[in-house]
Amino acid sequence: MNPIRVFLVEDDPVWRKGLIDFLNKEPDLTVVGEAGFKAEAIERFLPAQADVVLMDINLTENNLDGIETAIEFMALQADSKIIMLTSLTDEAVIVESFSAGAVNYISKSSFKEIPDAIRAAHNSQSAIHPTAAAALRNEFLRLKNDENQKLLSPAERDILQLIHQGQTQTQIEQSLHITKRTIKNHINRILKKMGVKTSKEAAAKASQKKLF
User: Rounded to two decimals, what is the model's pTM?
Assistant: First the structure.
């Protein structure tokens, strides 16, 4: 069985050498190429014919140019399997890395997990590091919440909140200084948007989703 071919992009020469030595001790892994900065990495990537790429997220200071390099790699080879290496735990950066095409994101402090992550990436298995998984989950929840917030207009949210508080249409009319006809029109739109049959169901659902 041929070893998994690894290409390493890392600006710190000491850390790069240490990681290369560490990986080459694994019987099924071999580092076939290395680079210390973006231009060098792009030049050497295709000739290395690597199966998996380890990409430092910051190749020059804090420019996140490892993400830019990952995008370049994906343009050169669409099925590239890139694992981002970093000491950053910023959720926005993690999400940006996956958007660039990375298949995993591992902290350098968890370097002992890198060999198994390489094997998982090579075998197209899902083995996202818990930190990355949490970031993606939080981003999904944030996007879902944004989507929910845009579902209803401010007026519709106000009406549902008052319904949830137990107010009648007459009381809502007085509270919001709008006519019953307007209230009914709002409620009809709300029921269609939320896929429910009654205003009380809509109010309960809106409360559950924290829409008001």
Answer: 0.60
